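Milestone M4 deliverable, item 7.
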Amino acid sequence: MNKRINRLATGLAATAAATATVVSMSATAAQAATSYTPTGGPGANFVGTNVSFTDIEAGQTLTCTTFNLSGSIINSGASRAYGVDGGTLGSLTSSGCTNPLAGPTTVTPVGTWTVAVTGDASGTSWPARLKNVKATVTAANCTFGVTGVVNGRFDDSTQKFTPNAGASGLTIDGGAGAPTGSMCVTLDLQPGDTVAVGGYWTNTPPAGSTALDISNP
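Output delivered:
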């Protein structure tokens, strides 16, 4: 009887050890990568479609018929950690920006915006982030700043960057300039208000450049 119990215990122990080994191997195989490699370029041209910016707390939306970002890939073919810049977007072309109450509005970028991949892909879609976003927004009797990041996803099969729904990571003011002017009061814009970004951008490489491709090294 004791021998049978011992054999059973030995068999269970062996099974448990084998199961632990399989689990350990699976966990290792599923371990997230820590870096990515962008290739393509050297130029990048992200053309905006239905781009809008909504102050969530105030319920006020700014829509733009044109909102394009262009720049270049940084060290194409070189690996870098997630979150480290993969490209610069130093040029903004915008027009037709308007709000129902404030009317025509101008968006002037401050500094150089950048873009980075922030994590592992799901299929061809990578979590990505517009970084160092800073701009001054001017309308009739209203001027304010926005600053922060825009979190979203970049699909290298369609070349589209689509912001996440809800708060994007941008805020009103944030060091870019508190709302000033009577129209800002009418719009109820307050420092610290969060901003949702609508629409999407499609990378349309300029002449002599190729599409952006993301991979893990």
